[in-house]
Amino acid sequence: xxxxxxxxxxxxxxxxxxxxxxxxxxxxxxxxxxxxxxxxxxxxxxxxxxxxxxxxxxxxxxxxxxxxxxxxxxxxxxxxxxxxxxxxxxxxxxxxxxxxxxxxxxxxxxxxxxxxxxxxxxxxxxxxxxxxxxxxxxxxxxxxxxxxxxxxxxxxxxxxxxxxxxxxxxxxxxxxxxxxxxxxxxxxxxxxxxxxxxxxxxxxxxxxxxxxxxxxxxxxxxxxxxxxxxxxxxxxxxxxxxxxxxxxxxxxxxxxxxxxxxxxxxxxxxxxxxxxxxxxxxxxxxxxxxxxxxxxxxxxxxxxxxxxxxxxxxxxxxxxxxxxxxxxxxxxxxxxxxxxxxxxxxxxxxxxxxxxxxxxxxxxxxxxxxxxxxxxxxxxxxxxxxxxxxxxxxxxxxxxxxxxxxxxxxxxxxxxxxxxxxxxxxxxxxxxxxxxxxxxxxxxxxxxx
Length: 449
Known about the structure:
It contains two helices and 34 strands. The chain has helices spanning 125-129, 305-308, and strands spanning 4-6, 12-14, 25-31, 42-45, 50-52, 58-61, 69-76, 80-81, 91-96, 101-108, 113-117, 147-148, 152-156, 159-164, 167-169, 172-176, 180-185, 198-199, 218-228, 234-243, 249-258, 263-269, 282-286, 289-293, 297-302, 315-316, 324-325, 334-342, 347-354, 365-370, 379-384, 390-396, 407-415, 431-438.
């Protein structure tokens, strides 16, 4: 028998020949505006089998009982739309057969274009199963990382240094909670294609603790930046908070990157009763100062290490009024985000997530702009929506800007946390997803003062 034989214990043992051949049916879900594959599109059969497109918008379908016949797939994707049939069903009926393929087109409602998943397992799973070449060196599992929370990134010594919060791994439900990190080349891949991450790993190959404090508690970082020390040497610095839980901070201060150990060292502790005068959120450098946006720039300090480590030198700035929805004129309460100068718009631009939005509590992403880094921010436009799913702590990566700032890139944490949705999306949940925004889009025009 060339396909299988009976083992002595009565078990069926497959030979490699049994696994060969084009057994999958390839389904590609594409953006009808660009023809590009749409990640995070969900296809569900009549009997509730769920399939989710990978970062190429592909599904490698192989369900033995459903091959060689017509199969209906319900189709949904956050911020994208598929037409309904006469009975109100949103989906497509496909003739499924091994080695075959089909394409499903979606209309994009989002102004922002979803590009790919940055972190986690199986980023290009279906691409690999279909025998196609993925753009990443590690398309399936990198650094043993299944999920990562909230990104901080800064250029440092010719590379991009990426850091995240709590990180999940395959071998146990508890991962590590003292910050993860990786580097990527600068320049590296086209940011429209992906980010090739090289993780800092431990002896087991798992993403290692980047802030390995001896005291108990989770360690989260923000306000990542580079600043010169007294000798003029550029150093990588961040604010850290050691947390008992989501709302209880045990200590905070500054950490500084140790280039020899390739981890952060505790640099200075700040007054625990003063949690505002510190480098919170995302840092942006303006005329010799760092401003810290969370999402508005309400704290600043001189851009030197001696000033950064002295909490008394931080200056609190008044918070501006929240912007109004340019379409409805209703106030938009923003939760977190980042601010950067944009050469194309010749404005300071803000990408932030809304708190208490709809249809998601913490998943509606907005764009705003101002003449000054501190505002005011009179108008805002929703650019990304999620259906009862969170997309929190978005960050605009200004170092990826293209075409004079016309094209920008931002990512955020896609998670069912705070969403009220009881069904986490396989592979995508608790991971970073990259979006692209074209600032020439006519829908981003605001009234002039």
